[in-house]
Design a protein that fits this description.
The complex is a heterotrimer of chains A (about 100), B (about 475) and C (about 500).
Chain A: H1 9-18, H2 25-42, E1 66-67, H3 77-81, E2 87-88, E3 91-95
Chain B: H1 9-17, H2 23-36, E1 43-46, H3 48-63, E2 74-78, H4 105-112, E3 116-121, H5 157-164, E4 170-175, H6 181-187, E5 190-193, E6 213-218, H7 221-231, E7 261-265, H8 275-290, E8 294-298, H9 303-321, H10 339-350, H11 353-366, H12 372-395, E9 398-402, H13 417-421, H14 428-433, E10 437-444, E11 450-456, H15 462-476
Chain C: E1 11-13, E2 18-30, E3 67-68, H1 69-81, E4 89-90, E5 93-96, E6 106-109, E7 119-124, E8 130-142, E9 146-148, E10 155-159, E11 166-172, H2 179-196, E12 208-218, E13 227-232, H3 235-254, E14 263-267, E15 272-275, E16 288-289, E17 296-297, H4 300-308, H5 314-325, H6 329-336, H7 339-348, H8 354-372, H9 383-394, H10 400-413, H11 417-424, H12 432-445, H13 447-454, H14 460-471, H15 478-488
Parallel strand pairs in C: 13-14
Antiparallel strand pairs in C: 1-2, 2-11, 2-12, 4-17, 5-6, 5-16, 7-8, 8-11, 9-10, 12-13, 14-15
The chains are: A alpha+beta (about 100), B alpha/beta (about 475), C alpha+beta (about 500).
Chain lengths: ~100, ~475, ~500
């Protein structure tokens, strides 16, 4: 692996932590290789001059539509909880969080 | 194969209306066909009982003379569309047990016009892939030369294969960077990606929100036009949904190409593209000339950067869109001692390799210190790419390109990531610009595999694209039932 | 060493140096809307778990946000009230992080382009001098849900009712220099938002809460490293937390230590701040524009229309009350604290002596309300009644002393003061002959004192006044008593 690689074992761990992804030790090397390959590829954008170009985040031509302030939703507890892996007394349940 | 399976949408509508057969009979034919094509691994879920019930209602409607636009048309649904009380997984383990309590706007519109839901079709996991090889439930096999076990393309591989194998009369798919057009080309059918905002995204599992668009996969242009008419339209539940009027797309079909200017961008003749595909493109240029169109050479110099932009923007949005799959409210949960361990295990086990790669890339390009260099840069180049299309469309009415650089490849044959990504090289630019595009089958290559070409148009000019596509269809005379198709 | 008594609020005398606090606040104010910022579920507080939750709030696959128009207008209105610049172009971004009560895995917020830019408000510092506090920005964002950690030994429970409720985050500049100023700033913001009715300001229910950024520096030096104390929901806690945190930092710095920039929690039971155990280690929110939404572009005409419709705000109102009713700045400050107080006052003071009404309202009414533990809106004395009471004093129907008795009855019964005075026969006695009768009886009973008075012991005059008033049961008009006594005792 050369020094130009942007992803190494420790940056991979940091990204995986941010994305909350458990990465198998066995697949780590392959993943690092793949990610560096992709990053190497997308780096070619540096060739394009983008001075004074306004970034485009949506191709939609219209304005942001606004909604009236009306209560027209909710009161569907059963639907909300229907697919829950774990629930008690109408709450979703997760392992205890210590703040 | 039942003769009923040979009929296209307008023929079916007419046949039922004339009482030549019933919607129930037709639906049973398709359900039988689904059984017979099981080996192709297209359907994740077959909603047989529901389909029969819907067909019975359709027959009632015909009896009462209240038949709707798609009354009795059996349709397969890509598993990216949430379907009420039918399991919806996005071909991912992380949603393996998810049953929505709601119906996506687009599929709902189809059912409200009398279409019949045959079931859910496999795709690449979260629509991330170009070969259908990332699906949790295994590969879909291209119906063409099926013994060779080739890829149907992706991500809407199940949808394209189902239509090509006559296991659905029509199918719906989603296209983020080519996911309708590329599999349509691989399977010898018509695949339309409408203008961004044309079809509501509400209820479609999001991959990359600024690119995702639903569209029809059909046997011909006319079916595509009929389907899109029903699927399109403003939805107040989707802020990016367009208010643009939805015309009757079938009205465009017989207008021909006389006097139209068709642009041929030189940048799409890149190395690595199959000779036969280039030949097919030349053939289509001849069709256009013969029908009175003017061929104009144009240039879209930034084309070569489109894939890089795409592989920044799409993973960035995906990394955020897929954060909701955390094992708390629905889907897979793998227990852990703490919340974070639960998250990491659930997502580690629930997502496949390609999805993980894209989440990691997306996280990387958005992370502090890299945002400007990657994400922001990509958004700027995206603007330039869109501007380039705008400029070219001042000179020409439509653009013709190949849909894919190659025809279908054998499953498992592409080991290299970037080679796989190159599958979308011709479809991605239109996705970035938000413009509509269609893939129309033209030929079979020397291996007997379908070749498609792509027509791109201005925003909301799907009608015109159908019009141009129809000329190709009529001239090419591509036969979906020819030697090599699934018997 | 400096005299401890010379230390101003917000300063800390350490072993070696005199330190000064530098405080900036991020206030999260819930917009008083019917429905949520991006969904049609109710924004109400305190219903059954997961009841006010839509598919969008629960971040079901394929769900999309659509913005609430009312919330945008409230943000614009609040921005105007903070004398701030309204940005015609603003962007909604995703702030990405994982938490059990954040269903989307991101919060929709505004990062680089907020709807409201810089502004300022006035507060009073500890010497009651006016002080300008800069506002950095105001932006719209979604609230998160609620995690309950005390329901189960090994599990946390998640309720998404609050998820997606519209918040305005108001960020101050680091202009505050003492816990008291911070509290006064929060009160002022609360008051302003309540005036424009964009937020109910209910701190107990969490409609308004603050994150405090605290650092210390030697007087006049550069800003130090700051710590952020999260989620304080009362001015008392804000004051305590800032004081504790600043002292903690001074102690560390004087011992040669370094402050770690971190997020801390305030423990209301111990009055201390502590580092969060669950560290959000790699704080990297990966903000980017939400592709499900478009930029918000506002028309100049809408911005101006909302400005024109703005109600009179506390500072302006206070100025007007001082001029119009001749009350003191202190009285005005108390009265304008709540819009309801001011509305009450203006009715009570109509055609009356404004100062007198202010005294009655601030001392008697507020005192009684506090004693009875009532909320202002539940108080049994309508402003018309207080107006009438002051009228009765002004026209000598009753004395100030009797008025206090009448007021007690008004609090008890909600009756009109005129009726109480009539029922209890409390009218002031202004009939000369009746008062002369009282005086005669006092003179008769105090012959010796009259003697002394007439021999030059002038100060006994007050004694006679008191005796007459006593005999009249307080009802005699004191001026008349004075006048008549003087002529009788010649």
């Amino acid at each position: 692996m050369n020094n130009e690689n942007k992803i190494n074992s420790s940056s991979l761990a940091k990204l995986a932590r941010l994305a909350r992804l458990e990465i198998n030790k066995d697949s780590e090397d392959n993943l690092i290789k793949d990610l560096n390959e992709i990053i190497g590829f997308i780096d070619q954008l540096n060739e394009v001059n983008t001075d004074n170009v306004h970034p485009l985040s949506s191709v939609t031509g219209h304005e942001l539509p606004l909604r009236k302030d009306e209560v027209i939703d909710g009161d569907i507890n059963e639907k909300i909880l229907e697919n829950a892996p774990e629930q008690i007394s109408g709450y979703f349940v997760v392992p205890k969080v210590v703040e | 194969m039942s003769e009923l399976l040979r009929l296209n949408v307008s023929q079916v509508l007419e046949g039922i209306r004339k009482k030549e057969f019933s919607a129930v009979e037709l639906t049973r034919c398709y359900l039988d066909r689904i059984e017979k094509t099981k080996v192709l691994n297209m359907y994740l879920e077959v909603s047989a009982d529901r389909a029969i019930k819907m067909a019975q209602i359709a027959d009632e409607k015909y009896k009462n003379n209240t038949a709707r636009l798609l009354e009795g048309i059996p349709i397969g649904v890509k598993d990216m569309f949430c379907t009420e009380s039918i399991k919806t997984t996005a071909s991912s383990k992380i949603l393996e047990n998810f049953v929505p309590t709601y119906e996506s706007t687009v599929s709902k519109k189809l059912w409200e016009e009398g279409a019949i839901n045959l079931g859910k079709l496999s795709c690449d996991e979260f629509a991330m892939g170009s070969s259908n090889e990332t699906a949790a439930k295994g590969n879909v096999i291209n119906p063409w030369r099926s013994e060779e076990k080739r890829s149907p393309g992706g991500s809407s591989g199940g949808s394209a294969a189902a239509v090509a194998s006559k296991s659905a009369l029509c199918a719906i798919g989603t296209d983020t960077g080519g996911s309708i057009r590329q599999p349509a080309a691989f399977c010898g059918i018509v695949g339309m990606k409408p203008t961004y905002g044309r079809c509501s995204r509400w209820g479609i599992i999001a991959f990359a929100s600024s690119l995702d668009q639903a569209g029809p996969l059909t046997r011909n242009i006319s079916d595509s036009a009929t389907m899109l008419k029903v699927m399109a339209g403003h939805d107040p539940k989707d802020s990016t949904s367009s208010l643009e009027n939805v015309p009757n797309f079938n009205d465009f079909l017989d207008k021909g190409v006389k006097g139209l200017k068709i642009g041929i961008p030189k940048e799409y003749d890149r190395k690595g593209i199959s000779e036969e595909i280039l030949k097919s493109k030349e053939k289509v240029i001849d069709f256009f000339k013969q029908n009175g169109a003017e061929i104009v050479n144009v240039s879209l110099p930034l084309t070569k950067y489109a894939l890089s932009v795409y592989y920044i923007v799409a993973p960035a949005e995906a990394s955020s869109n897929l954060a909701r799959y955390d094992g708390v409210r629905y889907g897979l949960r793998v227990d852990g001692d703490s919340l974070d361990i639960m998250y990491e295990k659930t997502r580690g086990v629930g997502f496949g390799d390609e999805v993980k790669r894209r989440i990691m890339i997306g996280t990387y390009v958005l992370s502090s210190g890299y945002y400007d260099a990657y994400y922001l840069k990509a958004q700027k180049v995206r603007r330039l790419i869109k501007n380039e299309f705008d400029e070219v469309f001042k000179k020409v009415n439509y653009i013709l390109t190949p849909t894919t650089p190659t025809t279908s490849f054998k499953l498992g044959s592409t080991q290299d990531l970037l080679t796989m990504y190159l599958n979308d090289v011709f479809t991605v630019p239109a996705s970035l610009a938000g413009i509509p595009g269609i893939s129309v089958p033209v030929d079979l290559d020397k291996n007997g595999l379908p070749i498609g070409v792509q027509i791109l148009g201005k925003p909301f000019d799907e009608g015109g694209i159908f019009q141009v596509g129809k000329v190709i269809e009529d001239s090419a005379n591509f036969d979906l039932f020819s030697e090599g198709s699934y018997k | 060493m400096r005299d401890k008594n010379n230390i101003k609020p917000g300063q800390i005398q350490g072993q070696k140096n005199l330190w000064e606090m530098v405080i900036g606040l991020e206030i999260h104010a819930q917009i008083s809307s019917n429905s949520k910022l991006f969904s049609g579920a109710s924004a109400q507080f305190g219903k059954q778990a997961n009841e006010n939750v839509s598919l969008v709030d629960a971040a079901m696959p394929g769900m999309l946000p659509v913005i609430n128009e009312y919330c945008i207008k409230q943000a614009i209105k609040s921005g105007h009230a903070l004398n701030a610049k309204i940005n015609k172009f603003s962007v909604f971004d995703r702030k990405n992080y994982f938490y059990a009560d954040l269903p989307q895995g991101y919060q929709i917020s505004q990062y680089k382009s907020p709807i409201v830019g810089q502004g300022s408000i006035k507060i009073n510092d500890f010497e009651n001098n006016e002080k300008i506090v800069g506002i950095e920005r105001l932006h719209l964002e979604q609230d998160a849900g609620k995690s309950l950690h005390d329901q189960h030994p090994s599990k946390s429970f998640i309720d998404l009712n609050r998820t997606g409720v519209a918040l305005m985050e108001i960020v101050s500049k680091p202009d505050l220099r003492s816990p008291e100023e911070a509290a006064s700033y929060v009160k002022k913001i609360r008051s302003i938002l309540r005036y424009v009715r964009s937020c109910d300001g209910n701190m107990e229910e969490g409609s308004l809460r603050a994150d405090c950024n605290v650092s210390v520096r030697r007087l006049g030096e550069e800003f130090g490293t700051r710590c952020e104390i999260k989620n304080l929901n009362s001015t008392k806690f804000i004051t305590q937390a800032i004081q504790y945190e600043a002292e903690r930092q001074v102690e560390i710095l004087e011992e040669g230590g370094k402050i770690n920039q971190e997020t801390r929690l305030f423990d209301t039971s111990t009055g201390q701040t502590r580092s969060m155990r669950n560290k959000e280690d790699a704080h990297d929110y990966r903000y980017f524009p939400d592709p499900d939404l478009l930029p918000l572009e506002l028309e100049e005409t809408l911005i101006n229309k909302i400005k024109d419709e703005l109600p009179e705000l506390p500072d302006k109102l206070s100025e007007r009350l001082i001029n119009e009713y001749k009350i003191t700045p202190y009285d005005a400050a108390v009265i304008v604290e709540e819009r309801e107080f001011a509305d009450y006052y203006e009715i009570a003071a109509q055609d009356r002596d404004g100062k007198l009404v202010a005294n009655w309202m601030i001392t008697e009414l507020f005192g009684a309300i506090k004693k009875e533990n009532l909320s202002f809106n539940d108080n049994p004395v309508p402003p018309q009644n207080l107006n009438e009471l002051v009228f009765l004093i002004e026209n000598n129907t009753i004395s100030g002393k009797i008025a206090k008795e009448v007021f007690l009855q008004m609090m008890k019964t909600s009756k009109k003061p005129k009726d109480i005075v009539k029922e209890k026969g409390l009218e002031q006695v202004t009939d000369d002959s009746v008062i002369e009768g009282y005086i005669d009886s006092v003179i008769n009973d105090n012959r010796d004192k009259v003697e002394e008075y007439l021999n030059g012991k002038d100060k006994l005059f007050g004694f006679f006044v008191g005796q007459v008033m006593k005999v009249s049961q307080g009802k005699a008009n004191p001026n008349l008593v004075n006048q008549l006594l003087k002529s009788k005792l010649k």
